Fold:
Amino acid sequence: MSDTREEPAIDAGERDMLEGWLDYHRLTLIEKCADLTDEQLRTPSVEPSTMTLLGLVRHLAEVERYWFQEILLGEDLGVLYSTKEDPDADWHITDADTWQDAHTTWRTEVDRARRNAAGFGLDDLSKGLRRSAGDPFNVRWIYTHMIEEYARHNGHADLIRERIDGRTGD
Structure:
């Protein structure tokens, strides 16, 4: 496995820095899943948690869709996995769920997120509103939140991967 991630330049401008770190963390998640079978990707962390690498990829596809489609553009494409009966279905993996499907969906959502964000400046406000206060987010906040979201879940991914085959790292 080769690491294809690149950290942003230490003197990058703000937009390049935010996009660079988000892409770095996106690729970190994919690196944590590399060279594993579907069965391994369905392996939960530790009881009682049911968190898996495959679930993380599905969850982050939902997160990409939510922030860069529903919040940024104010458009609702619907959720990818969750339902009214099972709002956490992105985390609930079955034997029928595959890396191919999850990765393709995630890749589609990341590509859509990049296209959507490209049309906005960092100070531009989202069309979708915060549920609690009813006010918009600026694009800078969305990028920062997405970096935090991936960084947190990449910590989970690192622990799950270590449990599966002992591999650790950035």
Q: What stands out?
A: Helices lie at 14-33, 38-41, 53-73, 99-118, 139-165. The two ends are 14 Å apart (CA to CA). The first helix runs from residue 14 to 33. The CA atoms of residues 57 and 102 lie 6 Å apart.
